[in-house]
């Protein structure tokens, strides 16, 4: 189990994944800087440009990102979850490093973490992890685990691609 998985599981009260948990994630190493990736990631309303999960994102509170900031994200999760809107409150935020939100809704506890870790030789390791727990998770896990892992990886890859396409090369 990697650090992001362990962190998210701990936030939802689990020491490890079990029959009623689901952890989905994606990660990539890139030559892009954490600052360049953060500039694109923190432009919430443009997430649908690079994340296949997002149909829309709307800030519902203050305009700048901070702990306590809120936004609504309309997600397309496929069968059986369909399209859903989640109201998110940022629980932890370290600009250019990580953002975390967690919830407890309809019998499902969840924790979502985006992390941008500088690599020793330059560049960044980008990770996108979410852990879910609860009886409803146990029922849908077999139907969604592969597709959601693919979608989380596609969101990471999309963030990297979009950042690379919009960032001016350094001289």
Give a structural overview.
This protein has 171 residues and is an alpha+beta fold. It is built from three helices and seven strands, in the order H-E-H-E-E-E-E-E-E-H. A seven-stranded antiparallel β-sheet has the order 1-7-6-5-4-3-2. Strand 3 and strand 4 form a beta hairpin. Helix 2 packs across helix 3. It is globular. The model has no long low-confidence stretch (mean pLDDT 93).
Protein traits:
171 residues, alpha+beta, Alpha-D-Glucose-1,6-Bisphosphate, Chain A, domain 4, 7-stranded antiparallel β-sheet, 3 helices, 29% helix, 37% strand, globular
Task: Give the low-pLDDT segments.
Answer: none
Average pLDDT for all residues: 93
Summarize the amount of helix as a percent range.
25-40%
**What is the string of SSEs from the N terminus onward?**
HEHEEEEEEH
Strand content: 35-45%
CATH class: Alpha Beta
- Supply the CATH architecture: 2-Layer Sandwich
Strand order of the largest sheet: 1-7-6-5-4-3-2
Number of domains: 1
Radius of gyration: 16 Å
Please state the overall shape, judged from the principal axes of the Cα atoms: globular
CATH topology: Alpha-D-Glucose-1,6-Bisphosphate, Chain A, domain 4
User: What is the fourth-level CATH superfamily?
Assistant: START domain
